[in-house]
Amino acid sequence: MQLPIMNSSEQDTGCGCGTKNYTTRPGITRRSFLRTGTAATGAIAAIAASLSPLRELGDSDDFSVTKFLQKHYKEMDGQDMAAALQRISNEVEKRYEVRPNIRDIKPMDGVEFVYALNLSRCIGCRKCVHACVAENNQSRSPEIQYIRVLEMPRGTTDIEQGNHHYDRATVPSEDHYYMPVQCHQCANPPCVKVCPVEATWTEPDGITVIDYDWCIGCRYCEAACPYWARRFNFSKPTIPKDKLNPDMSYLSNRPRAKGVMEKCTFCLHRTREGKMPACLEVCPTGSRKFGNVLDPSSEVRKVLETKRVFVLKEDVGTLPRFFYYFDERDPINEKNPTASTNGGDA
Amino acid sequence: MTPTKTSNHTPIAGYFVGVGFLITAVALAVQSPSVDIPIIEKPAVRVEQIVPGQRRVALSDPPMINIGTLNQRCNDCHAIFKQDRDPESELRQHTHVKLSHGNNDACLNCHDKDDRERLTLRGGKTVGYDQIEQLCAQCHGPVYRDWQLGTHGKTMGYWNADLGESIKLVCSQCHDPHHPTYNPIEPLPGPNTLRMGDQHIDHEMINERNPLTRWRLRDHDDTHDSDHGGDH
Amino acid sequence: MNDLATPSYQPKGFIKSYAWFLFRCFRLSFVGDWKYFLWMFILSVVALFGLNAYAKQFVQGLATTGMTDQVSWGLYIANFTYLVGIAAAAVMLVIPVYIYKNKDLHNLVIFGELLAVVAIIMCLLFIAVDLGRPDRFHHMLLRFNFPISILTWDVIALNGYLLLNIWITGYLIWCAYNKRTPTKKFYIPFVFIAIAWAISIHTVTAFLYSGLGARPFWNSAVIAPRFLASAFAAGPALIILTLQVIKAGTGYHVSEKAISTLKGIITVALGINMFLLGSEVFTEFYTGTSHSVSAKYLFFGLHGHYALVPWIWSAVALNMFALIVLFTPAGRKRWLLNAACVAMIIGIWIEKGMGLIVPAFIPSPLGEIVEYVPTLNEVLVCTGIWAFGMLIYTILIRVTIPVLYGDLLVDKVYHTDPTVYAKKTNESSQTSLLNEAASASPK
């Protein structure tokens, strides 16, 4: 097929406007070749130059054919999961030089986790925040913290009056109480409702989980959460090698990639094996209570039965599994004239 | 595929475009391939600050105490040096003890006057140091009730006692019996998210909207009396 | 104009002829005067800088933008929201033509629908650059949380609208190219579907926001009506300006009746938009509950943070200026009308973008205030996508007008002299293909 090429050979169409015609004369003139060539070369060079930052992707392990084809967590059978765990294990070992113990822990039957927090006892020391960061392999730079402690002035439960950034010499501060907020693992979670790819869902034991290899990073769930509990990896998470917690599970604290969501999972790699979550273990005042609410003898059940519990933003209808309560006493704000500032221990 | 001459465009437009693109290519290529992301580094948290554990180690039963370099039982001395009255002045031994327990300001309220390796309950009964909660419960009834239920205090280890050890801490594993109120401690670093910006507290807004503060300020204005204290 | 020569290459079979048509279009997009080349060159350079900025974002993650966990949607979603409105507004041209049989707007329907196509392409690009993992887009096809997640409705609505408009415009242009009268059943039903669909794409986008109980600023019934009102104000305003640019650039005749019909539409729409704004402002500020704290941040600043206050008041001022011009005889002066259109387009962009998306995140659900400032990289990506969209639209117009004029036809050589078109008028027989088709539509 001969392409009709317009060139400057004289063949008038005769319509009087002076336009030259398409002809079937083959060949390209030198001038038109140079013209086109310059333009095309320039365009290609410009496109290549604009895409040049992608050369930094070479050492990234975010993209591979296996990951592209990996199924959703709920569709993986034992073999798929074993292969995925193997892949994750290899990546972690390559990057952090630590062999992790990563597994997929299934929920226990007859268990629904509930968390209760004693606002009379919390002193706002933020140990829970940082124990969580250490336990769940969160990025340190930029820092991701699942738990946010609010310093609330006495006399109000208006969250807007809370101070997230208190930086006192010592806590607790008089005339304040402290309210840590993390994912409430709601029974009617708005984040699960809005996820377009079902990357987040509620497990049978009540925990809202995320499949980090399925999330597309649209951040609709982050907009939907009334408790600001979800975090997004805006850049590649950085964890110092010596700080890595090798005790991992697929749905909770394995190292995440950039561009995916994450959040508190009630330390399901610990709690599904019967242990307490890291935030509770480190709390120096015993403000945190955790357990299986379906067990009548559990501590959380006792809290719900004997204490005046409330939930945050109850009017939003999320049915959280995280309850706050006050004791009858208020040790932080009692005027105790014999409290001495030396002696005793921390 | 290059257009021919028409009445009002120059044929060298193609050249200009080409050169223009080459300049663009150079401008793009010389740029840094990465964008500077402002991350404010805060001091790292030391491992010891987040070690899970009980707050203090309770005394064993029978209790052992260090005198100089020796590790002694209480009755090694107290079986010899009998003292069944409260001290009238400063203690000469156990000088580290600063009793600050509210109204409970007498040593022999808790320690048995005859046997220092026992703790005394009302009515003359004594218990060992391993049952210290019985002693605390005598005065701190509601807290003891809560502790028994699990709503006060701390249970560590396993929530599921079938799968592992569920360690329920006893009173003296958190509270120093001589000085049970906790001292204030230094808080760990606060949030450090991306591009946080200025995070100051709007005290004016809080004062306006917090009902407690509004009344206090009003009291302060009316009576000019500041013995309420505790303003922030 | 008599045409002495037919193109020597006449392929047989649909696929070959369509491919040949596309090739001719491709060649035609490189034909033009120096102003055309300069315009395309500038757009290309801006688009390339945008592509470069996106490449950096793809490598480093979304930390190159100004978004944070507190304000997790920013300029990308703001532009997306605005462009969905522009896309929906193309239907404002279709309704008068097909329902009210307004002949003056006949050929302009194509330009409006092409604008809709381009706007939807830009929307999809804005979503693609906003995703944390665009490489996982196929997950949407494998596990689709329809009908519960409104985002899935939006995916269906936007892609469906794109396909509808590509079909309609593609079919009509193909028929014009082949000098065939379009068969009614292949486009009339789709036109009517497109009318309903256009309303729905913007309603679904509004429901994305208004269905979130966590964001009281959005959780209001007035969001969807405001979206539609502002879309039907800004979209036709953009079309008014575009038509004048087309007329100036190609000599294509655009009737005054068309401009005045559109002016009537945007007057009413802007009036409704301002009324709804007043309604929102009253409800937020008269009651004074904590639900209005985001509105307070937007209009008056909150606790010492005032970043958006000048923006929103500028938007209000621009819209008020446009409203006054449109409602008074001043709007009869063309330059004032154009100024009003520009003011509206910018004002509505501000209030739908920064005035809607960002304030909902400030303060955060826990009361923290972290302000949002887009980074240079983010702005470059946005301008790159806008430039790319304008590039596509210019090419589409560059190709469509010759077809509609009857200068690029299957059996005709293309005349490369643009001054030829200045002599054409709307009554020319070659442009009647669309007229015939439109007037033959069912009642």
Explain how this protein is built:
The complex is a heterotrimer of chains A (346), B (232) and C (443). Chain A folds into two domains: 4-50; 113-343, Alpha-Beta Plaits, CATH 3.30.70.20. Helix content of chain A is 23%, strand content 14%. Chain A has helices at 30-50, 65-69, 78-96, 127-135, 190-194, 220-224, 268-271, 278-282, 299-306; strands spanning 101-103, 113-118, 148-153, 176-181, 200-202, 208-210, 230-232, 247-249, 261-263, 288-292, 309-310, 322-325. In chain A, strand 5 (200-202) and strand 6 (208-210) form a beta hairpin. Chain A is elongated. With 232 residues, chain B is of the alpha+beta class. The longest helix of chain B is centred in the N-terminal third of the chain and has 17 residues, at 13-29. In chain C, 65% of the residues lie in helices and 0% in strands. Chain C starts with 13 loop residues before the first helix and ends with a helix. Classes of the chains: A alpha+beta (346), B alpha+beta (232), C mainly alpha (443). Chains A and B meet through helix 1, helix 4, helix 8, strand 10 and helix 9 of A and helix 1, helix 4, strand 5, helix 5 and helix 6 of B.
Give the topology, please.
The complex is a heterotrimer of chains A (346), B (232) and C (443).
Chain A: H1 30-50, H2 65-69, H3 78-96, E1 101-103, E2 113-118, H4 127-135, E3 148-153, E4 176-181, H5 190-194, E5 200-202, E6 208-210, H6 220-224, E7 230-232, E8 247-249, E9 261-263, H7 268-271, H8 278-282, E10 288-292, H9 299-306, E11 309-310, E12 322-325
Parallel strand pairs in A: 1-8, 2-12
Antiparallel strand pairs in A: 2-10, 3-4, 5-6, 7-9, 11-12
Chain B: H1 13-29, E1 64-67, E2 70-73, H2 74-78, E3 119-120, E4 126-127, H3 132-139, H4 141-149, E5 155-157, E6 166-168, H5 203-209, H6 211-223
Helix pairs in contact in B: 3-4, 5-6
Chain C: H1 14-28, H2 34-60, H3 75-89, H4 91-98, H5 108-130, H6 139-142, H7 150-177, H8 188-210, H9 223-250, H10 256-287, H11 293-300, H12 309-327, H13 334-352, H14 376-405, H15 432-439
Helix pairs in contact in C: 2-14, 3-5, 3-8, 3-9, 4-5, 4-8, 5-7, 5-14, 7-8, 8-9, 9-10, 9-13, 10-12, 11-12, 12-13
